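Sanity check

After download, print the first record. It should look like this:
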Amino acid sequence: MSEDLTDLAIARRSRSTELAGAQGKDFSGSDFSELVIDGQNFFESIFNGCVFKNTKASQSVFQHTEFTEAKFLRCDFKDSSFDHSDFVLSEIRNCEFSSCSFQNAEWRDSLFFDVRFRQCIFRNTTTSLAQFFNCSFDAASAASYVGASKRFSLYSETEFFLPAEHINFLQLNFGIQSHSVPPSAASIYENDPFFALSLARYYRVLNAERFCMLLLEVVSKSVSEQGIPYRLRMGYIKGICKVMLEERFLSVFAMKFLENKLLSIASILTQRDLVLEVMGVLFALRVAMHDRMESIEEEIHEYEG
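Expected structure tokens:
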């Protein structure tokens, strides 16, 4: 019995020390906690549903790999290549990527919390509905990241240097903020309400009233334009609302105002799918209102009597 326990302990210790490379292997559903990956090749491997916890990797190849619904927690990746890889519905928390390459990678519906990018390359990386909370891109990473293939992504409390010549990046990317002085009001209110909303946020002149007016204009335009794909746009709008709600930017009164206006918009729509998309935004507002009211009631309860 004791020998069996000893063998098990040795096996666990060896498994938690180092992971050997394997090209084209399906690792789906595996747990890669407490691992060291050094100079290994995982070309065309599959890591769907995998968990990486306290993993340290350096000089390794993750090219053409899949990370659908994968989770990364407190990981450190250095000098590694994720070119042509797919991060779909993944969650990355408290991680750092240094001198890593993500060229031609795809980030879709993935969440990044407290992630740091240092000297990374993002040439032709595609993003859609990716969300970054309390993340940081150094100047080199930010300069490489900016490009037309980054669309419908959201940023909250994220350090990101955006050069003035790339201000158009904000047309379909919301949440990046600048410390520079805003230009005249005329240049903030563009014909494109998506751009106007992101610019107001970028120059830190966005207040609750302006947010509500621009958001309603964005929704109205998105549901009225014929022939323009709306699913990504409506998902993006819902994401914008969630960012502002999580930052507690909107009061209960502002949320109620938006709810009433969105109900009015939904009531005149004839396309069922569009109604469902608008109701998705409404649902996010109602959940936030419920949580906020509970919080207020708890605070009031402390002063009873």
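If your output differs, re-run the checksum step. Summary of this record's structure: Residues 1-15 have pLDDT under 50 and may be disordered.
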